[in-house]
Specification:
By secondary structure, the protein is an alpha+beta fold. It has a domain of 124 residues: Roll (Bacterial Protein-export protein SecB). It has three helices and four strands. It has a four-stranded antiparallel beta sheet. A hairpin with a 2-residue loop joins strand 3 and strand 4. The longest helix is centred in the C-terminal third of the chain and has 33 residues. It is globular and about 60 Å long. It starts with 6 loop residues before the first helix and ends with a helix. The C terminus is likely disordered.
Length: 183
Amino acid sequence: MAKKPTTDTANAANTDASSASSASAQQFAIQKIYLKDGSLETPGTPEVFTQSWKPEARVELNTRRSSIGENLYEVVVTATVTATMNEKTAYLCEVHQAGVFNVSGFDDNATDQLLGAYCPGVLFPYAREAITDLTGKAGFPPMTLSPVNFDALYARQRQQATEAAQSADGGNEQADAEPDSNS
């Protein structure tokens, strides 16, 4: 005769099954990675090639994301490199590296983390390669961007947003308190 499981064992089995089903409901997939836009302007040529190459380079990085369907998101990393010599622009190279990602089954914070940090980290090496290729093909020494820690940038951005919200709330409380003190 088979033993009937105790309620504790049955509850543990149900808990394990529900945990497994919720974990399997989480899905992250890269649907497509593509170069959305790439441009290179070389206003300093050909004169810049006659000079000793000692540029000052300024690098700007931006990310944006948008929902393009149910559980589908486009994330775009924009990298802009401006090289100047003697205050004249030698080149301006801009790349918009994009990807379409399927993200489902995650809570809002985890989804925000994936789209704000992980996806840009996936895209950045492609943007970096495009910048290197474009600058090299233009006759300049290839510009190789340093790796970027998007997790740290995301954490800093979240912290700044939290501090801004707290200071805005603090400002409202003070504004509310001022009329009371005048009464």
